[in-house]
Design brief:
273 residues, alpha+beta, six-stranded antiparallel β-sheet, 12 helices, 11% strand, elongated
């Protein structure tokens, strides 16, 4: 079994074991204009749909429809996302200006947001194109794997990493949530992410979803960690064995019944005297 076949098998197992609604994805960064069969076969926004799309929308299309999709700068709708992924050579000053204008109460806060975002970005011009594909159909080794789920499902995935002493990071900037993918690639560590405004309104992520992005080399750790945490963190969650409680005065329990019988017995005994 090849490494990619093994990766696809593990992705399929994780999806089935956790009942994930959408496909686990592989993300491959290409540094130059490379001739790659998978990249050429993938659907591209301009070529196949005659529109430009942000990264978050392509991620959601791929994980929902099961398509392999690819993007370059020319295909990109969101230049902030393109900056995050290293698709642009020069960073226009208006990106910072608009982050401060629309995402922060003042310029100082905007600067702090921008500086936080810059720490999650790939170097400008470092990426020529990006392939995003379900793991089950990917033929090239991905750099990053992305999985979406409910908060509990993603917590279970994160717990699998902590089983090995690998601690996922979570830094919410409030913009460009796709930066969790670039940060996972940069840092080599899993990244937890909740959707930002753009991912909700442009990418159309659901309100009950969040994601985890991690380097593909950690996939084996994820799978063994899921197995190792079954006792401490079962999924689906098992109901604990306990005695329920009801509102005070609502006489529905066995104890109420026993108390009723006791009082009735006392009344019967008193009336017979």
């Amino acid at each position: 079994m090849s490494s990619m076949e093994r990766l696809a098998e593990m992705g399929k197992k994780v999806k089935e074991d956790l009942a994930l609604r959408t496909h686990p994805l592989g993300v491959k960064f290409y540094k130059s204009k490379e001739l790659d069969e998978e990249l050429e076969k993938a659907r591209r926004p301009l070529r196949n749909f005659n529109v430009r799309m942000p990264i978050c929308q392509l991620v959601n299309i791929s994980r929902t429809y099961g398509w392999a999709v690819a993007t370059t700068l020319e295909d990109s709708y969101c230049i902030l996302g393109a900056r995050v992924m290293g698709l642009i050579d020069e960073v226009p000053e208006y990106l910072f200006e608009d982050v401060a204008r629309f995402h922060a109460k003042d310029g100082e806060t905007g600067k702090a947001i921008w500086e936080g975002l810059e720490k999650k970005c790939l170097p400008p011009g470092s990426t020529h194109s990006i392939l995003i594909s379900p793991l089950t159909r990917m033929k090239v080794q991905p750099d990053v794997i992305v999985m979406y789920g409910t908060p509990i499902q993603v917590a279970k995935l994160a717990k699998a990493f902590t089983w090995h002493g690998i601690f996922p990071e979570a830094v919410f900037i409030g913009a460009a949530a796709c930066s969790s993918i670039s940060k996972a690639h940069l840092s080599g560590k899993p990244q937890l992410s909740v959707p930002c405004a753009g991912e909700v309104f442009l990418g159309r992520s659901e309100e009950d979803e969040m994601s985890i992005a991690f380097p593909a080399k950690l996939m084996e750790d994820l799978v063994t960690g899921l197995e190792g945490t079954k006792l401490m963190f079962p999924y689906p969650a098992k109901f604990m064995i306990y005695e329920p409680r009801v509102l005070s005065g609502y006489r529905i329990t066995y104890k109420d019944y026993e108390e009723w019988k006791r009082k009735r017995g006392q009344e019967a005994s008193a009336s017979s005297k």
